[in-house]
Every structure is written in C-alpha cells, then in structure tokens.
What we know:
The chain is an alpha/beta fold. The protein has helices spanning about 20-25, 50-60, 90-95, 135-150, 160-180; strands at about 45-50, 65-75, 75-85, 100-110, 115-125, 155-160. Strands 1-3-2-4-5-6 form a six-stranded mixed sheet, with helices on both faces.
Amino acid sequence: MALTGELSLDFTTSANLNPDELMSAQEHHLKTGGGDQYFESTKKLTTIDPEALVLFRNLKLRRQYRFILYTLTEDQLKMEHTGPPDANLSDLLSVLPESECRYAIYDHDLTTSDGRKTSKLYFISWLPTNAHPSMKMQYTHTKAMIRNSFDGCYDVNGTSVEEIQRGIETNMSLGDAEEEDNSEFEDD
C-alpha cells in the first residue's frame, strides 16, 4: 500500500524558540503557587553515605539522637538534621519541609500496658502532597534499597503530619497487642 501526496510536519524544538516562547511553552507547577520548579529525576541513588549508617547505629544502639532526617543529594543518601535525645515527635515534625520529600528515623519511647518502658524505631517516608511528582517518584523508587540498610524499624508513610502521628499511634497499639498474643505464659 503506497501513500501519495505530501506530508508536512512542523516540529518545534526548544532550539527554535526564543526565550519568551520557551517560557510560555513550559507547564507551571500548580502545587508551588505557579512557580516553575525543576527536579532532575535521571539521577539514581548508588550509595548511602557511610556517615548516615554510623548515625543510624548510634541512634539504634546508643540512643545518641531522637531522630535523624535524611535527604537524597546527587547520588547519595545523606544526613540533613539530627534531633537531641530529649526531642520528641513534634520536634521531628517541625523540621520536615512542606514541599520536599525526606526519610527519617525516629526513636519513640513508650510504656507498655504492663508498665515496662521501651522504645520503637520508625522508618518514616515523608512524601507531602505538594512535593514535585518527580521527587516523589525518586524517593519511592529508592526506598527499598534504603530500607534494607535500616533494619529493625517499623514503616510509616506520610503525606501529612496527621498521617505520621496516626501511623506511629497505630503501630504502638499493634505492638502491644502482638506482645500479648504471642505470650507463651498464661496467667493463673
């Protein structure tokens, strides 16, 4: 089957546009108030900064911090902020950026139903609703690799502060129920 006639396509590339036309051709990111926001998603996480792992071990084993906030930079996961041992959940929530994704490790102290003091570690994936979609995708795709390095934590995913608080409260109550259900001893 042969096609007859002329077919003319006019493809306009950014090289053919002047700067004013190029700006009008870009789509504004509505979640940031219409301001242009660019995020390069072609970078892939290749390593975790060794200092990030040392800080995690110090939090887990020595309780030197209450929380650690991590960010993806270039091709590494790096520590952005740490909280002192006397910090609490509201201190962690106050340092989370409003429109950027982060990972956090949080050490939550609690008292069990039988009066024992204990703590639980939480791996928090902070993906706010107004973050750039490419950033959300990058954090979602790298979570599995990062999560394997931070063992012994409960997972909490949050797009809002309320979701993180609710996730920690839910895990606290589930942990107490599991401890009671798995008991080998019966009360007389």
